[in-house]
Amino acid sequence: MRLLTEEWAPMSYEQDGLPHGYMIELVNLLKTEFTLPPSQNIEILPWARGYAIAQSSSDVMLFATSINDERLQMFDFVGPVATTNIYLYTSADDPIMLNSVEDIPATDTVGVYRDSIGGGILEKVDGLELLVASFPHQSARQLVRKRVRFWSQADVAVEMLLKEIGSDISQIKPVLKLSQIELYFAFSRGTDKQVIEAWYQALLAVQQSGQFDELYQQWFHNLSPPQQAEIIWRQ
Questions:
Q1: pTM of the full predicted structure?
Q2: Burial letters 141-160, b for 16+ CB under 10 A, else e
């Protein structure tokens, strides 16, 4: 199996040349639960590149991935392994209030990163200007420097992304919830079903043992972990 993820702290990120984060620890925990051949090292790639590889190659596990109609045609899924809310953020001193995406002024720009869920939602808004980045911390920097008025990001990642760029949560505020999503392991077309079943059984085992909840609380404190896992087969 080729294991692909993205730079999206605290879910997954590189530190001192090695992968770290909640998803990295979860994957390593699950690998102790089954007897598959040892996997290669986890690769941290730009999301768009990892997604393209998973679309075109067999025996790829891409994580952490949300589900939509298009992805249901391409991947099998195991999870959920995390739950997150996608918000639109602006500067803390910005007085604007939004009730829906239609309230976003057409004269303003929203920072998103390529192929993200928030970006996909906002692309459907007519006349909305998006500034697309390859990495999420680039969009965070654009908001802090006021190159964009809004930034789309998942709540679980905001604090660490801001820390990476030398900022902090006091400089921004959420102004609109775009979506709540659950995140999964996505297995590419052509991956052996027995392999997918093995990852599923491993996830069930760590959930039932309490290790999953313990790991989730270590990383996300008061956020509630997802409930019992399932396999969602490609349609």
A1: 0.79
A2: bbbbeeebbbbbbbbbbbeb
